[in-house]
Amino acid sequence: MHVRAPAILVAARQHGETAVIGRFLTEEFGLVAAYVAGGRGRNLRPVVIPGNAVEVQLSARSDSQLPFAKVELTQSRGPWLGEPLAAAAIAWLCALTASALPERQPYPSLYEALAGTLDAICHAPSARGWASALVGYEVLLLRELGYGGAGQRPEGDLAQVIEVMDELAAPLDHYLLADRRGDVMAARTRLRDLLGRMT
Q1: pLDDT in tens, 166-187
Q2: Which residue has the higher pLDDT, 5 or 148?
Q3: What tens digit of pLDDT does each residue of 88-129 get?
Q4: Helices (H) and strands (E) in the chain, counts
Q5: I need a labelling partner for 191 at 20 to 30 A (CA). Which of 60, 109, 124, 127 fits?
């Protein structure tokens, strides 16, 4: 396996003293886990942040081996991690994607939707500009994984978006996250509470 592709880093877990196991969502190859040497070092620490857009180079001797990754930052989400609402939204989207998607199965529409939603979170003047896109991503994720075709991206004011968000909580928890370690839904609950304060 020798691949170079644009990717969104959706998870980074410490491995040893300085390395990181990163999970990268790519358009063509899907979600790929890889070993990032020095990922916790001074040079790569600002790069290996969930939500960042990167150029990733993956190499492995066989398909069964965990690939090694070299990463170059193409777009940082770091400046928005100091804002509680944006940080909560980025954390939820990345945790959901990393937990729900199977390894190495491409979902080009989810890659494009995640990239667009993260851009909206970082560039919209307020949550009213991106909340609908975030819930639309949840709807798309459920549909792409075979758990619901009727849902649509909510349109309207923030109160209507939150109403749809509340309706999606049970399907997300039951279908996508029920057998996952850790409480991924806690990130969504925090985001929902923050959005609720705006209405």
Answers
A1: 999 999 999 999 877 668 999 9
A2: 5
A3: 999 999 999 999 999 999 999 999 999 999 999 999 999 999
A4: 5, 5
A5: 109
Instruction: Output the CA angle 151-157-163, nearest 5 degrees.
Output: 50
Could you state, in order of their start, the residue ranges of all structural domains in the chain?
2-76, 79-196
Total-model pTM = 0.94
Q: What angle do CA 128, 76, 98 make, to 5 degrees?
A: 75
Angle between helices 131-144 and 84-100 (to 10 degrees): 0
Give the pair of three-digit tokens for residue 171: 């399907």
Give the single-character DSSP code of 199. -
Return the axis-axis angle of helices 131-144 and 158-171, rounded to nearest 10°: 30
Rounded distance, CA 172 to CA 138, Å? 8
The tokens describing 69, both together, are 């990754």
Which residue type occupies 39? G
| Domain at 2-76: CATH architecture | Beta Barrel (2.40)
State the maximum Cα–Cα separation within the chain, in Å, rounded to a whole number: 53
Q: What is the dihedral of CA 102, 105, 108, 113, to 10 degrees?
A: 10
Match 């965990």 to its residue by tokens.
66
And the tokens for 152?
């649509």
User: Residue 31 and residue 102: Cα distance in Å, rounded?
Assistant: 7
